[in-house]
Amino acid sequence: MSTRHNLVSEFYQDLVEQGLLRSEVLAQAAVILLALLVAWLLERAVQRHAAAAHPERREHIGHEGFVRIFFPLAALTLTWLSGLVLGQWFSGSLKLIKLAGILLLAMVNIRLLVFLMRRAFDGADWVRRSERIIAATIWTAYALHVIGILPELWQLLDEIQFHIGKGQVSVLNILQALTSVAITVLAALWIGREIERRLMSAEVMDVSLRVMVIKVVRALLIVMAVLIALPLVGIDLTVLSVFGGALGVGLGFGLQKIASNYVSGFIILMDRSVKIGDVVQIDNRLGVITQLTSRYIVLKAGDGTEALIPNETLITSTVVNQSYNDRLIRIALPIQVAYGSDLALVQTLLQQAAKAESRVVDAPEPAVFVKGFGENGIDLELGVWIKDPENGQLPVRSSVNLQIWQLFQAHGIEIPYPHRELRVIHAKPESTQGTF
Description:
Elements: H1 7-18, H2 23-52, H3 55-58, H4 63-86, H5 95-120, H6 125-129, H7 131-146, H8 149-159, E1 161-164, E2 167-170, H9 171-200, H10 207-232, H11 240-253, H12 256-271, E3 279-282, E4 285-292, E5 296-301, E6 306-310, H13 311-316, E7 319-321, E8 329-337, H14 343-355, E9 367-373, E10 378-386, H15 394-411
Antiparallel strand pairs: 1-2, 3-4, 3-7, 4-5, 5-6, 8-10, 9-10
Helix pairs in contact: 2-4, 4-5, 5-7, 5-9, 9-10, 10-12, 14-15
């Protein structure tokens, strides 16, 4: 039976054989404690400096991640340097320092991985829920490495091989490829998220242009991450030609709608026909565009509901954009007054009611038009202009109509309504006497 290299058991055996209170062990323990104390003090200083720093400096790429991993990284560095110094006095292997270094390295990996996932996925709930699983997985891997099981497990997985085409691939190669791709894609998503945060804060660029640049950069980063990760584990990129052919056939037969939506999304972003914050009407749905994605837009209606409208719909159907070049829109309010009303006074009262509403702009000023003479009264129309269509039209209509009602009541202006008279005509009863 082969002897397994077990750092923990070797350290324990040295303690049993040579004792705990040896100068070598005590020196290592003192160095580790001192390294932890110095790293903790430095971390406190870095955190105070970060808290006092200007918000723009705290937004630098990697600043938050550096603060997060500073303690284990500083402790690991100090422990490693101390081990080099102690190696000049002690000829034996510094197993305690090696154990401490492995544990600190595991802590660095856990904090760094969790930080990248939080930033890459914008603090999603599933990331917070999976933090313990991530930490347990990394701790387990390092524990297996320390006790010597992990190398044997790698060897076992490397022996399980199968043929793909003309070559052989082991389970270990597949796991390494998946891990490499996952790490590089995660780093690409993090870089893309940081670029997005900075571009979205750039006021000099149009919103649609910013969104388009972000999506193009994110797609390029993911492609580059995959192209970098696969050769690192020895996978030839020419094998992707088969996948590319299969993808092309899939797009031709079953994914044309999805591809059309993605292409339409880039067209919308490039021609800037709609942008975030526009008030649009698509089919029978009116709302504000709150989000532009590669596949759909998010349209929030006045009642709070959000509709996910495919990008292809915006290309193939008519879109009424109420804020394309100018955010001013006109609201028409139909009014009817009774015959015999003083139209000059009515026009004055209508304009007064419109100007009493704060959302109605002064220029263009409210205007009153006589549309015609109806069956029950004179038909008028009050036209007002507002510059914030995203806040809805119904509140303006309600407020102006309420003002009109109060002013008409105060000045005796009658709003007519249909009158119907029902007359019952009694016919003369026929004589019941017969003729002779």
